[in-house]
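User: Let's play a game. I give you a shape written as tokens, and you guess the letters that built it. Ready? Here's round one.
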């Protein structure tokens, strides 16, 4: 088995953090998760690797107004997110069964939608 460089181990730990969490993560959340596997990993390293993974199209940013940037693994089907107002975590909702019927001006046509839900997660609402 080839010996992995520190850089490779850091990048692998960051990818593993996203796969294991299975929800969008902020840089700080990635840092906490990666610290468990790679001792002394820094926030600068997390930023650098997240940027690399976005360039490689392995991660995509999840835009959320008024919140720090979060990222999730690319290539998922259309879905939405739920933000817990208490712990601040962002969760992924499966699929989309949302029926939005806005009143559109004449001649307008909807080609997609984007929104997120918020409230309390199970842990915070208990
Ligand atoms: Zn919560
Ligand atoms: Zn949808």
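Assistant: Ready! My guess for every position:
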């Amino acid at each position: 088995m080839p010996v992995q460089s520190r850089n490779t181990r850091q990048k692998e730990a960051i990818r593993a953090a996203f796969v294991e969490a299975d929800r969008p993560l902020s840089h700080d959340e990635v840092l906490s998760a990666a610290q468990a596997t790679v001792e002394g990993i820094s926030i600068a390293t997390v930023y650098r690797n997240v940027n690399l993974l976005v360039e490689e199209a392995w991660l995509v940013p999840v835009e959320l107004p008024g919140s720090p940037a979060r990222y999730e693994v690319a290539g998922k089907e259309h879905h939405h997110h739920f933000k817990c107002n208490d712990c601040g975590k962002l969760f992924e909702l499966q699929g989309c069964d949302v029926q939005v019927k806005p009143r559109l001006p004449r001649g307008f046509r909807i080609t997609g939608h984007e929104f997120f839900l918020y409230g309390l997660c199970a842990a915070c609402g208990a």
